[in-house]
C-alpha cells in the first residue's frame, strides 16, 4: 500500500478536479468562489487511559490553530473507546461519554459539527428498555435528533448515514433515495458514514458497508460530484469511481491512543491523523490527510 512508503510527516492528497466528471482534453481551471473548509475527524475513541484526554485536547487545539479557516466539523464515529462489548458496565460507558464532553466537545464548541455513529458508540449490555441502551442514547450524547440526517452547508448537501451495524436497512435506504431524488440536479453531496461505502482500506482490513452498490448506483446516476467520507478501518485510502470520490480516513486515535505495533501510535502504516477538505461551490473538492501535530 502506498502509505507504507510515506514518511511520518508526509500527507496524502487528492487532485482538485477528481470529483468532477473527467474530460480527457479539458485544461484545469481555477475553482470558482470561496471554499468551505471541513475538518474530518473519525475514530477518536476517547478514553481515560493513556493520557488520552490531555493529548486529545492538545491535538484539537493545535489543529484549530493551524487551520483557522475551518467552518464545519464532520465526525464519522467511534467517538468513544468502546461501549458495545457485552462486559461494558453502565459506569464504564458513562465514564467515556464524560471524557468525550470534557475534551472533544469542549475543544470544538465554537464550530458547527455533524456526527455519524460508530459501531463502538452504542451500549448494548444494558436492558433493552433502559434509556441508555443502543442508538437513541448515542444520539442524545452527540446532540443529534436522528441517527441519519441531512443539512445544507453552503452549496453542498451534507448527509450523515447510520451504518454502524453493517448496512443501512430498508427504512434508511428509502429515506436516502428520496432525499437524493429531491436534490437539485447540480447540487454536490458530502456523504458521511462510519463504515466506508467502498474503500481499499476496508477491503484490506475490516470490511466496507454491505449493500453499498445500490447507493453508489443511485449517486452515480445524478452525475453531480459526491464525496463519500468514512472511517472505521483506521487506515487511509482514497478512490474514485465516476463522479464519486471515496475517502476512508485514518483515526485521530491511531492505535486507540496506544503505541501500536510500530510504537508511534500509527495503525498499519497510517499515522494518527485528521483530514482537511475544501469544498468549492461548483462541486470541486480537495481532501488532504495530515498526521496529528506532534
Ligand atoms: Fe474505530
Ligand atoms: Fe468502527
Automatic annotation (TrEMBL):
Gene3D superfamilies: 3.60.21.10. Pfam families: Metallophos. The keyword Signal applies. Keywords: Signal. Residues 37-235 form the Calcineurin-like phosphoesterase domain. The keyword Flavoprotein does not apply. InterPro entries: Calcineurin-like_PHP, Metallo-depent_PP-like, STPP_CPPED1, TAT_signal. It comes from the Bacteria. Residues 1-26 form the signal peptide. This is Metallophosphoesterase.
Amino acid at each position: 500500500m502506498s502509505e507504507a512508503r510515506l514518511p511520518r510527516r508526509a500527507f496524502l492528497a487528492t487532485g482538485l478536479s477528481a470529483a468532477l466528471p473527467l474530460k480527457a482534453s479539458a485544461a484545469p481551471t481555477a475553482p470558482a468562489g470561496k471554499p468551505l473548509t471541513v475538518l474530518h475527524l473519525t475514530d477518536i475513541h476517547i478514553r481515560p487511559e493513556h493520557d488520552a484526554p490531555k493529548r486529545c485536547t492538545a491535538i484539537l487545539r493545535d489543529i484549530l490553530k493551524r487551520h483557522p479557516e475551518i467552518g464545519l466539523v464532520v465526525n464519522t464515529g467511534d467517538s468513544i473507546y468502546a461501549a458495545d462489548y457485552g462486559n461494558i458496565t453502565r459506569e464504564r460507558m458513562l465514564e467515556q461519554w464524560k471524557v468525550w464532553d470534557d475534551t472533544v466537545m469542549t475543544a470544538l464548541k465554537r464550530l458547527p459539527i455533524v456526527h455519524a455513529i460508530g459501531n463502538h458508540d452504542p451500549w448494548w449490555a444494558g436492558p433493552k428498555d433502559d434509556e441508555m441502551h443502543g442508538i437513541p442514547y448515542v444520539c442524545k450524547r452527540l446532540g443529534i435528533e436522528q441517527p441519519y440526517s441531512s443539512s445544507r452547508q453552503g452549496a453542498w448537501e451534507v448527509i450523515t448515514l447510520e451504518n454502524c451495524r453493517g448496512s443501512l436497512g430498508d427504512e434508511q435506504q428509502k429515506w436516502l433515495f428520496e432525499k437524493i431524488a429531491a436534490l437539485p440536479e447540480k447540487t454536490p453531496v458530502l456523504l458521511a458514514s462510519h463504515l466506508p461505502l467502498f474503500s481499499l482500506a476496508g477491503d484490506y482490513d475490516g470490511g466496507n458497508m454491505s449493500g453499498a452498490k445500490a447507493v453508489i448506483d443511485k449517486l452515480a446516476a445524478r452525475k453531480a460530484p459526491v464525496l463519500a467520507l468514512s472511517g472505521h478501518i483506521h487506515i487511509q485510502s482514497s478512490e474514485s469511481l465516476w463522479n464519486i470520490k471515496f475517502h476512508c480516513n485514518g483515526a485521530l486515535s491511531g492505535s486507540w491512543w496506544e503505541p501500536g505495533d510500530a510504537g508511534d501510535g500509527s495503525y498499519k502504516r497510517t499515522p494518527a491523523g485528521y483530514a482537511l477538505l475544501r469544498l468549492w461551490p461548483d462541486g470541486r473538492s480537495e481532501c488532504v490527510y495530515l498526521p496529528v501535530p506532534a
